[in-house]
Design a protein that fits this description.
It is a single chain. By secondary structure, this protein is of the alpha/beta class. The chain has a single domain, classed as Luciferase-like domain (TIM Barrel, Alpha-Beta Barrel). The chain has 12 helices and 11 strands. The strands form 2 sheets. The chain has an 8-stranded parallel barrel, surrounded by 8 helices. The longest helix has 20 residues. The radius of gyration is 20 Å and the shape is globular. Bound molecules: flavin mononucleotide (FMN).
Length: 372
């Protein structure tokens, strides 16, 4: 058996993955003509480039419908387990995640599909658990989005069932609050031990607790560096109390050009002048930002730009040295790494690979990629 459960934790101090390449627009909510088209060809080209460059992972967005607007942002998307299986079949080292909504996918079906994809990848598979927030998408399945913290309780049962499917060799019944299952058995088992890598994307206190108890990594949005520091401290304390190891990744968008002025101009061009306003507005409203009385108009305006630029991700904008300084600050704060978006992944990745990755090696945050 290969222990790949810690694959993302080994090696590089600051890990880097690509986020949302399975969806139209990726994380950039923009109308610019070069916005991302998630064709299969584009996904495979990107995955192979990322694999050769030594990136740790590809992480898809679990999306079922778009946000409307001129581009119907994210309206075209590949389902994430089959996407991951295809990416794994086309690559050698990189981990592919799947992002699954526990309220929408039966855990037996999910556990079986995950094992299938994980075998295709020789163990290189990760599961990103999301408990859901988008009532419109749940409506497509005829399922009501349950009360907030109950969704995480359902998530715990769901993951417990998957874990038992992956590890138990005798048939079992499961009689929980959300799931009632009879005579459950499944072979083969995952290649990774004790189970595939688990990440959880949650923004609330319940989401953080879920990760501390159940996941290898919490995938957390950074609003401010102060909040991020507080989250990191909470996760570290919670994990220590349970004798667990839980790392934190954040989502980031990268705009890197030879000069910071050029990077800022491109950022302004795609995220301000050419934002997909209606789609941005739908995200802004749907996430409860618009009606949040605790946020000033200035903060809301900044948050809108971050939605357009990278679906609220952390901005890494500047010349290569500036971007590396910002990454160094994230690492020093205690983050394990980032899942990043680029406006056009295939066109913009080579500059990132050639200018940022060698600087990260010199900064001691990453190692040279070994030749095969
Ligand atoms: C980095 C990141 C990635 C996320 N990816 C997805 C996703 O692919 N699909 C989805 O429905 N929700 C996604 N979410 C939403 C979270 O699962 C979660 O619902 C949201 O952060 C609100 O947190 P809460 O549910 O704990 O209140 C993501 C959140 C973050 C921070």
């Amino acid at each position: 058996m290969t222990d790949t459960s810690n694959a993302v934790t080994s090696g590089n101090k600051f890990k880097i993955g690509l986020f949302a390449a399975n969806c139209s627009g990726g994380i950039a909510c923009t109308t610019v003509p070069e916005r991302w088209q998630p064709t299969w060809e584009n996904n495979v080209t990107l995955a192979r480039m990322a694999d050769e460059a030594g990136l740790e992972f590809m992480l898809p967005l679990g999306r079922w419908a778009g946000y409307g607007g001129e581009t119907d942002h994210n309206g075209t998307s590949f389902e994430t387990i089959i996407w991951a299986a295809g990416i794994l079949g086309a690559t050698k080292r990189i981990i592919a995640f799947s992002t699954l909504h526990v309220g929408l996918i039966n855990p037996i079906f999910a556990a079986k599909q995950i094992v299938t994809a994980e075998h295709i990848g020789g163990g290189r598979f990760g599961l990103n658990i999301v408990c859901g927030w988008n009532a419109d998408e749940f409506g497509m399945f005829g399922i009501e989005l349950g009360e907030h913290d109950r969704r995480y309780e359902q998530g715990e049962e769901w993951l417990e069932i998957c874990t038992r499917v992956w590890t138990e060799t005798e048939p079992f019944d499961y009689d929980g609050e959300f799931f009632h299952l009879k005579n459950v058995r499944a072979e083969p088992k995952p290649i990774s031990t004790p189970r595939p890598l688990i990440m959880n994307a949650g923004g609330s206190a319940a989401g953080l607790d879920f990760a501390v108890k159940n996941a290898d990594f919490l995938f957390r949005n950074i609003s401010t560096m102060e909040n991020a520091k507080a989250d990191i401290a909470k996760v570290a304390a919670g994990a220590k109390a349970l004798d667990r190891n839980v790392g934190i990744f954040t989502n980031a968008y990268v705009v890197c050009r030879p000069t910071t002025k050029e990077a800022e101009e491109y950022h302004h061009y795609y995220a301000v002048e050419n934002a997909d306003e209606d789609a941005v507005d739908r995200i802004f409203t749907g996430r409860g930002i618009k009606d949040n009385p605790d946020l000033s108009d200035d903060v809301k305006a900044q948050m809108k730009i971050r939605i357009a630029a990278g679906n609220s991700a952390f901005p890494l904008v500047g010349d290569p040295d500036t971007v590396v300084q910002k990454m160094t600050a994230l690492s020093e704060m205690g983050l394990a790494g980032i899942a990043m978006g680029l406006v056009h992944y295939v066109e913009h990745f080579p500059y990132f690979r050639d200018e940022i990755l060698p600087r990260l090696v010199r900064a001691g945050l990453r190692e040279e990629v070994p030749n095969d």
